[in-house]
Amino acid sequence: MGTDTKRAARQRSDLSRIKAWWRTLGGDRFAVLPPPNRSRYTQSDGHEDAAEMFAVRGISTDASFAYWHWQSHDAFDRDGDLTGELYLHWGGDHATVTAGLGDGPDGYRIVNGGPQGAFRLDRVTAVDGDGLPDPEDAAGVRQLLARLDTPSLRTAEAVEYAAPTPAEERWLHDRLWDLLPGERPAAEGTDAPATDATDLPATAPATDTPAATTASPQEPAAPDLTAPDLTAAARFVSPLEHRQALTPDETGRLLAAWRETYAGRLSTWSGWAPVLHALLRQEHPDSWDVAAALGPEASYVLAAHPSPRSLELLRAWALSGNGSAVRGWYRTHRTLREPDPHLAARTLSGELTAHTAPETTQTALLDALRTAEAEDRRTAEAEALRTAEAETDARRTADTGAPHTAEAATGARPTVTGRGAPADAALPLLATVRYATDDRLPRPLRVAAAAAARDTVERVREAAGRLPAAEAADALAAVERYEAARDDLLAGTGPDLTGYEGGLCDLYHHYRTLSPADVRWLRGRLADPSTGVQGIAFCLELLYAHGEAGRDDLEALLPRWKKELTKQYRTTYTEWRHPLTTLTCLALDLDHPAAADLLAWWAKPKPLWKNPVRLLTHLGAPDEAKAAELWEFIVSDGHDTGHLMTWVLLRARLDATHPLHVAERLIGDPAVREYVLHRVLIGVADPAQPLWHYAIDPRSHSWWRRAQEVADDPRLTDAARAIGLKAARDHHILRYPAQVRPVLTEGELADARAWAEARADRPAAD
């Protein structure tokens, strides 16, 4: 394709049309940000960009605005065509933004996500009388598949999908066969035979099946199958098998192509799960070889097809430490061997302990137990309700002499409900509290329950007030038992250091002060060679910031630093720094001989990832020369990845003063970006636990408390306190409390609102 042709194609793309429309938007009290680049990666970045644009253009700070960020931009492919809905985020007044965006550009539509959601822009597409798009209409096909792939019911144990219309099912099979090579089976109702699975190329049969024989020379040769486009096929495989509609012929052809195209990396094909479901459902002889090759990723699929072989595979994966396999093992064990949820959990917990499986497997088992009991309870309640309805219908029929059902009387089946919203909301939390002191469960499971209930026990106490008197008394008694046992159960334990980094950030406020038991646990994790980079970063930062890190901690990590700690580890969304940054600071503070080797490594030009964070090591053994080098970078307008934070903490150490006083002296300094300074001012409020997140995290307990403290600190200037007040007013605890993690209690939310109301007359920073 020539340059002119490519340029013309770009001009006709969705992206070009949307940009052209976007340029027409804006007006009184509404503005749009320019299309994004990689620096606008999140919604926080979008709000920062809006603040900068408002300042440059003189737009009122209370104007409303709309934008999309780089993650949303993934909706476009390389040619600029939409591959999904484009999420348009916003700030300010929702009604103003709604009016400002209007109906979207010609040929497109906008779905309004409401006051707490994003707007979604997509193409308008045409469909036929059956509601089906032209197969050549990529946008129409995508929208139909999205609708068919949306569950009609989702529970912890199962996902259900609405049955397709006959026309939709035929259309799906037709589209899949458009992508499958070989002879297409005849349509239903004709006398032409469909291709049977035995016509497919032979695959390695299981050793215990009679099919493991040598083919005779007289057998017909397998058809020459050209590998289909599996990426495209996966889109149609999923909605078909969600309804158990893949045929053996389709499954066999997909399996052959999958094995050939993705040999040695089966799980990298996006369509593997529905095909494995189909293989197991159809009892294909190669099912178990495929499952074993996929490994623990196949746990959820295997659990949906319980058998002795699936139980064996799931057990092996669970004992190796895989949480998904633990859940599948528990579910399958209950189905095949022990339906009682507590006995099943006790048996599996004992096996995990005997095989020294990681502690995280006990947490996964606890989650499986909690889910199973909740499902059992909902099933029992639904069945009791149906029984009661049937008895009522029978009595009315006997009284009137005419058949009577609730469905006939109302035209619809009554909704099956449980005990009511207050009780339903409290039950999962209460169950976890009870597990912690349930003598039917082994100690490892009770320890996992105690940790899980740590941030929910107060919510249980509040919810008890909405339960009937007898149930409330029982719930409060369970809370008292939990609180009496908690400290003993949690002694010498800590969080899962291998999980999602956001989960560790959510509980960071628990470590604002360190108990002797906390210090011992953190040091133990540093000394444990199985602790990974994230775990080292978390533990070392806490020990270093609290002044508890010492020579033993440093030397425990020195054998690992060159091979493990020199790897890239992104800390954009964490409250801690890269572990090698912190380790270097510790070595410098201790004047340890290893400091020279560490500094020599930082001075090398590669790897490139370290260059943006090299200057953060200046916090160790600070001096005026390091302070000057850091400041030179800060005023150079380079990208701040913790530099101003480091300079403020460094300067505070040199001046023997609180870092808040260092930060507030920078207010109004034109050489410092205002939004970076605001974040640093809040982040250094407690120098014993600085917060290194790249932006003020509006859903964090830690940032909320620091914002309050800055707003109320009498040692600070009015300007500094106004910055704290602005951060507090912008926090989700006041605007979107459901997004705060851990979830707030009603008391915490009431206290936050009362705090804000008491300061309603105070000015906040712009």
Automatic annotation (TrEMBL):
Protein name from the UniProt record: Uncharacterized protein
**Which residue stretches does the UniProt record annotate as biased composition, category Low complexity?**
187-215
Give the top-rank taxon of the lineage listed in the UniProt record for this protein: Bacteria
Q: Where is the composition biased (Basic and acidic residues)?
A: 372-398
Region feature (Disordered) = 183-225, 372-420
Report the source organism. Answer: Streptomyces violaceoruber
